[in-house]
Structure formats: C-alpha cells, structure tokens
C-alpha cells in the first residue's frame, strides 16, 4: 500500500511541475558584464526573463563589484536578457533552454555618429551643379559651401 501512495505522489509531483512550468524546470543564469577592455562593470541594470508556456518569470537587478548578476527561476522555453548602463550601448539577447554562464561585453559610447531624419529636396533648379560634385550636411539641412550653409559633408 505504501508503494502505491509513493508512486501516486511522485506522479502528481511530475504532473504539477509539468503543468505549472510549461514542461520545464528550474533554470540558473549567471551573467558577468564587462567593458571592451574586460573590466567588470558595476551597477549595470540586468533584466532576465525565463520563458514559460504562458508568460515568464523575471529577474531585475544590478551587477555587483565583480560585474556579476545571477538568478534561478522556473523556465521552459529559453531565457531572454537585457543589460543597460549609462555611458554604454545596451545589450540584449537570448539563451536556449538550460543553465547558462555567460560574459556579456558592453561597448562604451565614444564619438557617437549623429543620425538625422529630415525631409528635403535635392534638386538643382538653377542648373548650377551641372558636372560638379556637391556635398550635403544633414545636421544643417543644406548643401556644403559655396552652394549652401552646410559645414560637415555627410555625403
């Protein structure tokens, strides 16, 4: 009789774990965040999402002095992560199912390239550009001198 009870309890636990976790189990993720010179980054914001059949279990925290953050949650279908830190480019990605131990490199923002979106017409109504290469400055929104007020030739 005790054997039947043990088997019943074991089967119930397996069914419960499968139903609640979407077929998965506990997953541990350890992330070390370093800069492009391999120096650990302290206080980077780390978000880890452990995917389930419906929704996810999440972890939010910061890296310690060694640049490390770790979490263990119930997961079934892989893990997503996002790491942010002021002065660095963000990093995001995913891991397949299972325990993970990863080092993520955040690149420092240095000499960012400005991106512009402006509506303009690049037409030569006076035919003054015939046979001449003319640059255009997106920051100013005009041709380069002597044809306009542009300073930095973006193209």
CATH topology of the largest domain: Immunoglobulin-like
Strand order of the largest sheet: 3-2-5-6
- Put simply, the count of helices is 1
Structural class computed from helices and strand pairing? mainly beta
Question: Explain this structure to me?
Answer:
Strand 8 and strand 9 (142-143) form a beta hairpin. The chain is built from one helix and nine strands. It folds into two domains: 24-106, Sandwich (Immunoglobulin-like); 113-155, no CATH class. The model has no long low-confidence stretch (mean pLDDT 82). The chain has a four-stranded antiparallel beta sheet with strand order 3-2-5-6, with no helix packed on it. It has a three-stranded mixed beta sheet with strand order 4-1-7. By secondary structure, the protein is mainly β. The N and C termini lie far apart (84 Å).
In short:
The chain is mainly β. It has two domains: 24-106, Immunoglobulin-like, CATH 2.60.40; 113-155, no CATH class. Helix content is 13%, strand content 35%.
Structural key phrases:
single chain; 155 residues; mainly beta; Immunoglobulin-like; 2 domains; four-stranded antiparallel sheet; three-stranded mixed sheet; 1 helix
